[in-house]
Write a structure and sequence with these properties.
This protein is α+β, with helices and mostly antiparallel strands and about 90 residues long. It has a four-stranded mixed β-sheet, covered by helices on one side.
Length: about 90
């Protein structure tokens, strides 16, 4: 089963759009506020990202996890919807 985590920052329009897209489709996800979690911010930066949102679709094997930043409905539809290709 895929687990989705959306790393956000306050007042981030693309973060709100991403969370709304997932919520409107009944897709469960976890939200992590990067402004409140220095450890998570460091982990996201280690992945190479400096902008939010960062979306991680965990497959249970970190080597196969998918991640990207920004609001991308096409990526969400492809990788976040249960049963979609990953």
């Amino acid at each position: 089963m895929k687990q989705i985590t959306v790393y956000t920052t306050p007042d981030c329009r693309q973060c709100r759009l991403t969370k709304t897209w997932l919520t409107d489709r009944g897709i469960p996800f976890e939200t992590v506020d990067l402004s409140a979690s220095p450890a998570d911010l460091a982990a996201v930066r280690e992945l190479g990202y400096s902008s939010a949102p960062v979306i991680v679709v965990s497959t249970g094997n970190p080597e196969n996890d998918l991640h990207w930043y920004g609001f991308h409905p096409d990526f969400l539809a492809r990788y976040a919807i249960p049963g979609a290709a990953a």
